[in-house]
Amino acid sequence: MTKLDSKIPSGHISEKWTNHKFNMKLVNPANKRKYTIIVVGTGLAGASAAASFGELGYNVLAFTFHDSARRAHSIAAQGGINASKNYQNDGDSTLRLFYDTVKGGDFRAREANVYRLAEVSGNIIDQCVAQGVPFAREYGGLLDNRSFGGAQVSRTFYARGQTGQQLLLGAVSALNRQVDRGTVKLFTRREMLDVVIVDGQARGIVVRNLVTGEIEKYAAHAVVLATGGYSNVFFLSTNAMNCNATAIWRTHKRGAFFGNPCFTQIHPTCLPVHGESQSKLTLMSESLRNDGRVWVSKKKNDTRHPNDIPEDERDYYLERKYPSFGNLAPRDISSRAAKEVCDEGRGVNGGDAVYLDFSDAIKRLGKKVIEERYGNLFEIYETITGENPYEVPMKIYPAPHYTMGGLWVDYNLMSTVPGLFVIGEANFSDHGANRLGASALMQGLADGYFVIPYTMGDYLATYKPAAIKTDHPEFEKVAKDVKDLTNKLLSIKGNRTVDDLHKQLGRIMWDKVGMARSEQGLKEAIQEIRQLRDEFWKNVNVPGSGDDVNQTLERAGRLADYFELGELMAIDALHRNESCGGHFRVEYQYEDGEAKRDDENFSYVAAWEFKDVGNWELHKEPLVFEYVKPSVRSYK
Amino acid sequence: MEAKKLNLKLKIWRQKNSNSVGSFVDYDVQVSPDASFLEMLDELNNKLEANNQEPIVFESDCREGICGTCGLVINGHPHGPLPKIATCQLHMRNFKDGETIWVEPFRAKAFLVIKDLMVDRSGFDKILQAGGYISVNTGGAPDANSIPISKEAASEAFDAAACIGCGACVAACKNASAMLFVSAKISHLGLLPQGQPERYIRVQRMIKVMDELGFGSCTNTYACEAECPKGISVTNIARMNRDFVRAKFTSKMTEV
């Protein structure tokens, strides 16, 4: 029944990528400019891919809905980027990074992909330094590293608390260089609304010009989606306001399978919700857990000021439950532990927040050192909350942050639609059921700089560079579909606003498809999402027209997709009768509350084929572990 | 326990498109002091939409002060009255009950208003595309530790690289000069050994495009540094000027 071919090369895991690179076909240098490649999204994955294609001599069309490539949400990543350079001589290696990532993903990732990721990680750092990325350095002038959530070696490279910003500015500078040279045409303020498939191959996209409202068509020999994740389905998440799933979702509806949609990551260190008007949640870098200690009161509904709660009445629950990893326990585990103590009523003032306390670190290292390490994060915290974290412990709570799921891709990063590639967070590939800290930046840049430039050549070399034009009837048909959808959204004129409906969907997702999921809750969620989706299509109100800037229209289109994606997430979570990584089913846990994985029945990638709204067919890609033996993921 | 709400009068710039004339429109709002300034606008927009009125167009994305998308002039200050934050980081607890707040777009000859509070800052990218990079192809890099860079130099380069490209410096400047923005990139790359080979051609090319786009000149009022959400220093402008003059004397290139 399965149509999935992961195309994992044969041979020993350490030789797969090397052999594959040699075996792949090449495009003659003189022919490269005859091929056009569309890249959608200009975050780390998209910008690095577009720049690398341009350098190789391909003709590249790059798209972003922002006013500038530099605004992509990769820019907000704080903590760092992993690489197995072993500059610290602490025993790191490709093999260890590979092992940690497979284990961190709770044995739900493809071994060969993860090994390749670890293998190219060092090149990424070289590349970024050469571009002028100002990583942190030691006094001798060499690069500094720190340890980061879930790792016992110091392999994380960082640039203050702004690593994502500096890496993205590096990748965008490489992109700008190609724009300067004319190999890349950059289209800003364009939102991809559909993909065009001709004779079974991806041949272009349809976008909306967000300033003029015009629906535009672009043709190419291959399409690369680098459009990020879908955490905003929860309404409140750490994602930027405009992050959305529309590009991948509409591509899914045209035939690309969706892999592991229920694998979502809830980040443990975010600022708690302040009230109804909250528009998004702010992440506080996980690096804070290197020196901060997480605790709650031992008493329920304790309303004392944190500084008045004596030491012996505090429960440092991560240190208590996970003595060997303590405050550095991986994200899924830390988040769930926070939810547990808050559900017991032991959160801050009995509510949904726990303390992250730096007083011990300040005593041990001095305020100056803490300021050097986390100064900008402390400032951000104080700006938002009005409290000084040098004096009063921070309050934090988990929030949706990253989606491990995404469009299914093979080893070459190609989806089930030939010629349609998916890179970065938008694909499902490397993080399994849980992503480790500082691995997203690594994956985005690995895909863009070091994987897709090779695999794209192999794909393009299979056929002659025939001219592609947008006057093919299929382009007209897809453009009409897009216009019809826009007109439909504008014509409903109901009495619910887009944000009201989105908040209501987010509540369902957070309560029932969030940190702890149950069979009953998921079944309820599916019904509730369907009802709300009907309500949306009957009763949403989108003021204005489609002929100029209309931000409500943009949001309405994205929300329409979340109503379908949200249902699939619940269906996927319901079918996966096990707990693993970010997917925790309350029915499947050990007596001590730890996740109970079921390798016998669920060691596979769930790839969903879209049939109709509310109707999917499940395909399974079995996961074979030849090099890392699946074990209980213990951080005790 | 939600704090007592503030009653505020907003005077917000509304403008249909770049060809039409805009004006201030009054709105009364009630808002929690814990909300951010942009969340206040979200709430107002949600009310407008519920009454089938067109919401106010403004831009924002990360809402963490790093992407550089947001940018409003609030009571005459780009990014509002507090130093070293972006508009999205401004919270309502900094305003008083009963206050009137004026909200305008970033205004400059080179930043056309697209609609309401949304402006076109694409000029910034055009400047960066004229050499605001180090020419290295993917795969061509030596080992990252092969060139030691002193902590001091890396740190100084970082201070300049922290620019978020929001355009507050231009909006703050009476000449609508982009010198702080441009000099930040010139400094970031020029302070690092990797940036040396292209240092003098870079400064000439970027300044040429900056001038062509209609950004003004610097007359040393330092308003840019005062309003910069990242505290980028005007010493970068001095460094850029130095490099530019040196380039004119030493560069063999007569045409850039």
* Beta-strand content estimate of chain A: 15-25%
Rg over CA atoms of chain B: 21 Å
Oligomer: heterodimer
Described by the principal axes of the CA atoms, the overall outline of chain A is globular
Tell me the major beta sheet of chain A.
Answer: 5 strands, parallel
Protein architecture, described:
- Chain A has helices at residues 13-23, 29-32, 44-56, 94-104, 111-131, 163-181, 246-253, 317-321, 331-343, 359-365, 367-385, 440-460, 473-491, 498-512, 519-539, 551-575, 599-602; strands at residues 36-40, 59-63, 81-82, 156-157, 184-187, 190-198, 201-209, 215-219, 222-225, 258-259, 264-270, 293-297, 314-315, 354-357, 394-403, 406-407, 420-422, 604-612, 615-622.
- Chain A has 636 residues and is α+β, with helices and mostly antiparallel strands.
- In chain A, the strands form 5 sheets. Chain A has a 5-stranded parallel beta sheet with strand order 5-2-1-9-17. A 5-stranded antiparallel beta sheet of chain A has the order 11-15-14-12-13. A 4-stranded antiparallel beta sheet of chain A has the order 16-10-18-19.
- In chain A, helix 1 crosses helix 5 (111-131), helix 3 (44-56) packs parallel to helix 6 (163-181) and helix 14 (498-512) runs parallel beside helix 16 (551-575).
- Chain A starts with 12 loop residues before the first helix and ends in a 14-residue tail after the last strand.
- Chain B is elongated and about 60 Å long.
- In chain B, the strands form 2 sheets. In chain B, strands 2-1-5-3-4 form a 5-stranded mixed beta sheet.
- Helix content of chain B is 33%, strand content 12%.
- The longest helix of chain B is centred in the C-terminal third of the chain and has 16 residues, at 235-250.
- Chain B has helices spanning 37-50, 122-129, 151-161, 168-172, 179-190, 199-212, 223-227, 235-250, and strands spanning 6-14, 23-31, 73-74, 77-78, 100-104, 113-115, 118-119.
- Chain B starts with 5 loop residues before the first strand and ends in a 6-residue tail after the last helix.
- In chain B, helix 3 packs antiparallel against helix 5 (179-190) and helix 5 (179-190) crosses helix 8 (235-250).
- The mean pLDDT of chain B is 96.
- Chain B is α+β, with helices and mostly antiparallel strands and 256 residues long.
